[in-house]
Design a protein that fits this description.
This protein has helices at residues 2-16, 36-51, 69-77, 110-117, 120-130, 171-179, 192-197, 208-213, 239-243, 247-281, 293-297, 300-306, 310-321, and strands at 23-28, 56-61, 83-87, 134-140, 145-149, 164-167, 183-186, 203-206, 222-229, 233-238, 285-287. With 323 residues, the chain is of the alpha/beta class. The chain is globular and about 60 Å long. It comes from Paracoccus nototheniae.
């Protein structure tokens, strides 16, 4: 990952110093510099700088320098910011179809998610963003959330019975835990470590890098790779800024964005692998290759409640049918 970051940074530096930009686009990200999504957009910036002959520059602002996700999405809609990287979850009130992607066990695995987002379904969803003055350029990987706890390995759905899990304040998450026989306990993320340590809760759910960087592996050593939630990330552009480009430049930018998704996904996979290795060395016990079908079957009432429209039900069926 360090090699890729160095390559991107070096290319940006070598090209930008030698040219003067005719078009400068500002891009926002809430994650810190060096995070896979930030480096993905930097890769896009490096490619468009090169393919445009130095005419188009993307200036990347990480670490919420331009505001938090919801604020920067609104600014992008109005053309104040040109580009924004954000999670699908942040668009739920703006582009309703994104709510479907918060349903548990929607994707079989990461490769399935990529196939869905890079195919016709991803294009259809992108069209709905344009109705909200946003142009989707690329879909990124935000990782998969899995369960971890301090009490016992979770090998089957029965092992979840009665365990108290921290979840974000979201009705889908609460209903998911209820359907699995566990107890949902919404609380701020910063309180999770001490809550597990003192027995207020038994565990939580998140991806490998968060499990690692938060120190939660120290107090909840049983990690089950069930991957119950994979919410895509995306890079979207202000339609105002997009329409100001020539068709030729639009093609260059879209190609650079799509190529950047390969870089971002590779960086994310490397970050996950590094965190997995770190938590195992720290004593975490990883449960893999569980039979997910009973977990999926248990979600029937959740889907009945949240995928109520014929459109949502059709989307779920087409996602599941995607190879």
């Amino acid at each position: 990952m360090k090699f890729l970051m160095t390559t991107v940074a070096g290319l940006l530096a070598s090209v930008s110093f030698a040219t003067a930009c005719e078009i400068t686009l500002r891009s926002s990200d809430t994650h810190p510099d060096g995070y896979p999504t930030v480096e993905g957009v930097k890769a896009m910036a490096a490619e468009i700088l090169e393919t445009s002959g130095g005419r188009i520059c993307i200036e990347v602002f990480p670490a919420s320098q331009l505001g938090e996700e919801k604020d920067t999405i609104e600014q992008t809609q109005f053309g104040v910011i040109d580009l924004v990287r954000a999670s699908f979850g942040t668009f739920n009130d703006i582009v309703p179809v994104t709510q479907t992607f918060s349903l548990p066990y929607l994707f079989r695995n990461v490769d399935h998610m990529h196939a869905v987002m890079d195919g016709p379904i991803g294009e259809e969803i992108g069209a709905q963003f344009e109705e909200r003055d946003l142009v989707v350029l690329a879909y990124y990987d935000g990782g998969a959330r899995s369960f971890y706890n301090s009490q016992r390995p979770i090998n089957t759905i029965e092992d979840l019975a009665g365990l108290k899990f921290r979840v974000i304040q979201n009705d889908v998450f609460v209903d998911m835990m209820d359907a699995l026989g566990a107890v949902a306990t919404p609380m701020p993320y910063g309180e999770v470590y001490s809550a597990i340590q003192t027995g207020v809760i038994d565990g939580a759910e998140n991806n490998y890098p968060s499990y690692d960087s938060s120190g939660h592996a120290e107090v909840a050593k049983y990690f089950t790779l069930d991957e119950h939630l994979m919410v895509p990330e995306l890079v979207a552009m202000s339609k105002t800024s997009w329409d100001a480009l020539t068709p030729e430049d639009q093609t260059l930018l879209r190609d650079a964005a799509r190529n950047s998704s390969t870089t971002q996904r590779q960086l994310w996979a490397e970050a996950e692998a590094a965190s997995e290795e770190a938590v195992i060395e720290a004593g975490a016990e990883i449960v893999r290759d569980i039979d997910k079908q009973p977990f999926i079957d248990a979600m029937a009432p959740v889907y009945e409640k949240y995928a109520t429209s014929p459109e949502a039900q059709d989307l779920v069926e087409r996602i599941r049918a995607t190879e």
